Here is the input.
Amino acid sequence: MSRVIVAVVLKPEILDPQGQAIVGALARLGIEGITDVRQGKHFALEVDDSVDDETVAKLADTLLANPVIENFTIRR
Here is the structure.
């Protein structure tokens, strides 16, 4: 068994109101130096060693992410 992490975030051209709200809150808290925040989803999958990255990518592209507005990365 191994753990695979799939991180899903909105594409750069998609407006991210939650991320913008966080940036505004950081400024109000006096935290400087952070100019952009993109919110997303984090999936931790426990998979058999036989499950390859191509299978995980198919899963992410069809079930975990909306490919029209989101990108994903896979990390083992």
